Amino acid sequence: MDVESTIGDGSKHQEQDLEECPTLPVNHRFLEPEKAVKSITDMALWEKSEAYMEYTGFIATLNEAIKGKPLSVDCKVSSNVKKILSVLHELDNYINEFPPIEQPQRFGNIAFKDWIHKVKSNTTQLLQDALHDNLHLAIPEIKLYLEESFGNATRIDYGTGHEMSFVMFLCCLYKIGNLLPDDNVATVFLIFNKYLSIVRRLQKIYRMEPAGSHGVWSLDDYQFIPFIWGSSQLIDQPRIFPPSKFLEDDIIEKFSDEYMFLSCIKYIKEVKKGPFAEHSNQLWSISAVGSWTKINQGLIKMYKKEVLSKFPVVQHVLFGSLLPIRRFPITH
């Protein structure tokens, strides 16, 4: 379906979107999502849940869509992608209203609490403006994923659980038919990349603590998914081959605007001092792997093991009607 050709007729466009989303019957009941993994024993529920399968499948689908493509690739940008981008631009602009406050402690500037309060006060309206009327019933469910994407207001920290919440928000936009398979490349290169620039800004301005950081043995203090998708971009890219080239300053400088993986390395080098092999040992080790395909596959496995199977992360995951905790149906 050519999304652009039906933009003029909003109702027609949205009906087609919803028809292409068979998971949502007309009488679908949205739920305000809740935490469901309350103890270590609940982790088995999560790993067999529909939410887990949907989420990991979503990451894999987008991983495939952007394989070998630089950020500047000419990709289709639907009107719905533009509307989600405008929501993020608005949230980005709010940061200007809350400069950091002079305070004694080094980390966790309390001005972040004011920013997040403004975000939560406005998400309903922003999503109403961005989504077709037919989808407004979904807003109480999906907005919580968006609100949880930027960090914790009490601890003033940010980590892979918050990043996961944003990717779940994107997954929900597909499940309700707001985004379509044609939007896959733009979802990563425009929407997710904009999100990445916002959270980096928040981390710097409000000196946010890493949430549940594994320190030097983690991939990165804050992010994981841009390394997965970023390594997919580098598959069959002769300019950054062998992979050890990603450590070279001139390569980082030249290509960080084209490849998410390199933009992550550039950011780490800006915020961390000392030898790269010491402060980012896992990434330094990755540079010795022979191909980007192997790195990409290895990072997906590592993500499942180091993030998705860790109770301290999953205890905060929200489950509703779109990403349910119920067991994934096994079809014979």
Walk me through what this model shows.
The chain is mainly alpha-helical and 332 residues long. Helices cover 52% and strands 2% of the residues. The chain has 15 helices and four strands. It has helices at 10-19, 43-47, 50-65, 79-94, 111-130, 139-147, 160-175, 184-205, 225-233, 249-255, 260-271, 276-279, 281-286, 292-308, 311-314, and strands spanning 34-35, 157-158, 209-210, 318-319. A two-stranded antiparallel ribbon has the order 1-4. The protein has a two-stranded parallel ribbon with strand order 2-3. Helix 3 (50-65) packs parallel to helix 9 (225-233), helix 4 (79-94) runs antiparallel to helix 5 and helix 10 (249-255) packs across helix 11 (260-271). The longest helix has 22 residues, at 184-205. The protein is globular, with a radius of gyration of 20 Å. The two termini are 31 Å apart. Residues 1-22 have low confidence and may be disordered.
Which class of secondary structure composition applies to the elements?
mainly alpha
Query: What are the low-pLDDT stretches, counting only 5+ consecutive residues below 50?
Result: 1-22
According to DSSP, the number of beta strands is: 4
Q: What is the gyration radius calculated from CA atoms? A: 20 Å
Mean pLDDT: 91
Q: What kind of sheet is the major sheet?
A: 2 strands, antiparallel
End-to-end gap: 31 Å
Reconstruct the topology from this structure.
Blueprint: H1 10-19, E1 34-35, H2 43-47, H3 50-65, H4 79-94, H5 111-130, H6 139-147, E2 157-158, H7 160-175, H8 184-205, E3 209-210, H9 225-233, H10 249-255, H11 260-271, H12 276-279, H13 281-286, H14 292-308, H15 311-314, E4 318-319
Parallel strand pairs: 2-3
Antiparallel strand pairs: 1-4
